[in-house]
Structures are given as structure tokens and as C-alpha cells.
């Protein structure tokens, strides 16, 4: 157990999660170590089926780990659920409240289960749902339901908030409103763990993030740290002259690859954008060549994600060790 660092609100050590048994057993989480610090937003990204929800459920205390250990606020969230749950807020992918209740009735019902909740009207106000208070849940739009889920998750003023794909189905304005609300919660000191398929959301909100693939964390750090490991890219179009032939570019400094896109652009990958671009432009100027549609960009989180998604599940992965006792 690693709870000596008081700034760590969540510590995940060697966690595995296995479904089924015998020959049909499947290990969805294959040995994950993570730390989430107090007051930060930690985003968990990953390809479909990477194991994000499987891991999150263990951290939320909804399911036990098959191996390894988890501490949330210094406690085991599964075995000591009664101590941890009142201090956390959980927004699942599917909430599953009775569809015949109205928005306000649902919120009041939930309100009754909490220790020191904020008033129902305030929670609905924060997510922009007050005007829908008397509408039955089944008549809410998909995005309005997500906002109701969010209202319920924050109603108990949690110290740690888990948001599993909170803005799926929200229109762009509602998504930005939800981000603003999350920012306010962070400013008030809430620790947030978020899963999302919207990389822009992670770029906007995350202090640190992890990318999962095949049951493991394969990248972890700030957005800048993760992106720094990926090459920068230069593209241009030129129909004649030596710069039109990618094979003549091999002498450019910091060059990784040079080739052509399907649409005929010359595409260069570099590990030092400034050095490569400077040398390229000097050559173009000396030769009097015009580089049309010139584009130079550092790697984005999307590029880092796509690189992960293209990695073979087992190529870099050591075998999962035999399960230790949870
Ligand atoms: N109850 C279960 N029994 C067997 N396998 C399961 C079960 N739940 C999930 N899995 C498998 O575990 C793997 C991880 O699933 P999980 O839902 O954790 O992934 P995810 O990263 O949240 O995916 P997504 O982004 O698609 O929501 C998947 O291959 C899934 O099929």
C-alpha cells in the first residue's frame, strides 16, 4: 500500500480485473499502476475495449480487483465502501433511474440518500436543467439525461468525482457548459477522474492523463509530455524541382521520414520541427522553389492516441503474471 504521499487521493497498484474463469477467463485490466493527486483532473483515455470502465469500476468500489490494490482517500473503496462512497460522486455511462419519475422527483429521491447534499434546485441549476424539473425522465433528450446524471453525481458535494464519458450526446454548447462546471468544481478543490473519447475534452481539462490499450496503461503524463514523444509534421505541395522528390530530403536535420500523402502532398516527419523546417525553407529559397499549402505542426494528442491505437496489443506487453490474491 502506498498512501504515505498525502497529496495522492487515489493510488492504484498492480490492478488486474478478470472476467469469468477457466478457459473462458478474460483479463480486461492487466496490471495497472496509477496515482491521482488531490485537486487534479486525471483523464483516462483509451481505445474501445481498452479496459477503462473495467478499471474505473474497481476504483469506484463497484467491483473488486482480481489482483493488486486500490486506495481512495486512504481506504479500500470496495471493502470499505461505506466509508468511501459518501465522499465520492459517480456518473456512470448509464444511470438507470426510473423513467416515469420527473427530473425533480429523481433528484429529490437521490437527495434523500446523501449526507450533506446541496439543494435540489441548485444542482439542477448548475447543469441548466431547472426549466425541465417537471418533465418525466423518459421525455428528456439524451443530452438532458446526461446533465441530470451529472447533477446527481455532484449533488453530494463529493471530494472525488468520477465522470464516465460525461459529455457523450451533449451538443457543443452544452459540452462547454459542462466543462465550465467541471472547472468550477476543480477550483473548489474537487479531485476528478474522467473517461472520454473526446480528445479535445482531455486537452481542455486534464492536468494529467493516461492512455490505455489492451488492458494496460501505455502512455501517462501531461498532454505536453505525451505529445512530446510523437513526431512533428511538415506538409507542402510542389510539382517540380528537387523538393518535389521526397528521396532528396534525407539530409534534412532531425528528419524521421519523408514521403507522399495520397493527395500528392510531400509529408515529412521530424523530431525537431524548427531544425527541419529551417533547413527546408533555406533549400527552397536557395532553389527559388515555392512550397504551396505549407503546413507545419507539432504532434497533437490525437496523433499520440492514433499511434497507441496502431500498436499491437501484445507486441510491447509482457505476459500477465499469475493472479495474486486480491
Ligand atoms: N462482464 C464482462 N464479461 C466479460 N468480458 C467483459 C465484461 N465486461 C467487459 N468485458 C470485456 O473487457 C474488455 C474491456 O471492457 P471495458 O468496458 O472496460 O472497456 P472500455 O475501455 O471502457 O471500452 P469502451 O471505450 O468501448 O467503453 C472488453 O474486451 C470487454 O468486452
Automatic annotation (TrEMBL):
Can you tell me which residues the record assigns to a coiled coil?
277-304
Q: Which GO terms describe its cellular component?
A: plasma membrane
Kindly state a single biological-process term from the GO annotations of this entry. response to antibiotic
> Which residues are in the ABC transporter domain?
10-239
Q: Is Coiled coil given among the entry's keywords? A: yes
Q: Report whether Acetylation shows up as a keyword of the record.
A: no
Keywords annotated in UniProt: Antibiotic resistance, ATP-binding, Coiled coil, Nucleotide-binding, Transport
Which GO molecular function annotations are given, in alphabetical order?
ATP binding; ATP hydrolysis activity
Major location category of this protein: membrane
Q: Which PROSITE patterns match?
A: ABC_TRANSPORTER_1 (PS00211), ABC_TRANSPORTER_2 (PS50893)
- Please give, as recorded in its UniProt entry, the membrane topology of this protein: Peripheral membrane protein
Compartments (UniProt record)? Cell membrane
Gene3D superfamilies (UniProt xref) = P-loop containing nucleotide triphosphate hydrolases
One Pfam family of this protein, by short name? ABC_tran
Q: What is this protein called?
A: ABC-2 type transport system ATP-binding protein
Amino acid at each position: 500500500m502506498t498512501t504515505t504521499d498525502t497529496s495522492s487521493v487515489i493510488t492504484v497498484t498492480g490492478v488486474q480485473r478478470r472476467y469469468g474463469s477457466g478457459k473462458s477467463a478474460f483479463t480486461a485490466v492487466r496490471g495497472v499502476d496509477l496515482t491521482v493527486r488531490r485537486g487534479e483532473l486525471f483523464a483516462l483515455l483509451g481505445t474501445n475495449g481498452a479496459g477503462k470502465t473495467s478499471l474505473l469500476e474497481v476504483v469506484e468500489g463497484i467491483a473488486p480487483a482480481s489482483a493488486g490494490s486500490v486506495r481512495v482517500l486512504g481506504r479500500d473503496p470496495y471493502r470499505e465502501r461505506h466509508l468511501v462512497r459518501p465522499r465520492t460522486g459517480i456518473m456512470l455511462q448509464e444511470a438507470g433511474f426510473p423513467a416515469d419519475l420527473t427530473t425533480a422527483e429523481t433528484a429529490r429521491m437521490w437527495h434523500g440518500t446523501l449526507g450533506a447534499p446541496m439543494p435540489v434546485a441548485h444542482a439542477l441549476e448548475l447543469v441548466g436543467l431547472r426549466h425541465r424539473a417537471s418533465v418525466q425522465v423518459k421525455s428528456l433528450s439524451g443530452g438532458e439525461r446526461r446533465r441530470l446524471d451529472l447533477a446527481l453525481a455532484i449533488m453530494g458535494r463529493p471530494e472525488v468525482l468520477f465522470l464516465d464519458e460525461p459529455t457523450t450526446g451533449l451538443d457543443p454548447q452544452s459540452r462547454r457548459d459542462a466543462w465550465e462546471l467541471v472547472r468550477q468544481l476543480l477550483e473548489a478543490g474537487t479531485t476528478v477522474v474522467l473517461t472520454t473519447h473526446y480528445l479535445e475534452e482531455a486537452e481542455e481539462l486534464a492536468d494529467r492523463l493516461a492512455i490505455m490499450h489492451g488492458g494496460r496503461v501505455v502512455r501517462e503524463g501531461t498532454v505536453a509530455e505525451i505529445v512530446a514523444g510523437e513526431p512533428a509534421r511538415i506538409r507542402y505541395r510542389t510539382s517540380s524541382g528537387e523538393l518535389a522528390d521526397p528521396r532528396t530530403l534525407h539530409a534534412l536535420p532531425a528528419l524521421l521520414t519523408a514521403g507522399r500523402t495520397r493527395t500528392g502532398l510531400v509529408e515529412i516527419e521530424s523530431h525537431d520541427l524548427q531544425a527541419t523546417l529551417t533547413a527546408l525553407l533555406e533549400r527552397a529559397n536557395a532553389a527559388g522553389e515555392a512550397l504551396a499549402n505549407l503546413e507545419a505542426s507539432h504532434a497533437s494528442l490525437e496523433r499520440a492516441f492514433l499511434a497507441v491505437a496502431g500498436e499491437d496489443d501484445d507486441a510491447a506487453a509482457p505476459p500477465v503474471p499469475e493472479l495474486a490474491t486480491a
